[in-house]
Design brief:
InterPro entries: TPR-like_helical_dom_sf, TPR_rpt, Ycf3. The chain has 136 residues and is an all-alpha fold. 81% of the residues lie in helices and 0% in strands.
Amino acid sequence: MDEKEKEELLKKIEEYDEAIKLDSNNDSYYNNRGIAFNNLGDFQNAIENYNKAIELNPNNDSYYNNRGIAFNNLEDYDKAISDYSQAINLDPKEAIYYNNRGIAFKNLGDFQNAIENYNKAIELNPNNAFYYNNRG
């Protein structure tokens, strides 16, 4: 990431901070700030923001997926798998959640579960080359 991209993300975080000051019960503001922290590589702050978003709206599947990505980046694959599984429970037709869970299983060395998840992602979205690449 270059310096300009980093500055843009820091500016976004400032904007989300201001939005949260004005409306601290809006779960999407915390999620968006979590995404910005994740993109900066600050995974712990990302997780804290996803935690708050989930606390405010525990039925939003994408929040669990986002937190799973942060856990995966921290190499906490068991927590990542747990979050991806919760996202799948909330929206079992979202292919990316299976793909992401497959990545976490692969990172754990559990190739059988990884392949099963990639297969499900491909079943749900057979036109996504990325899923085939991951399975390969």
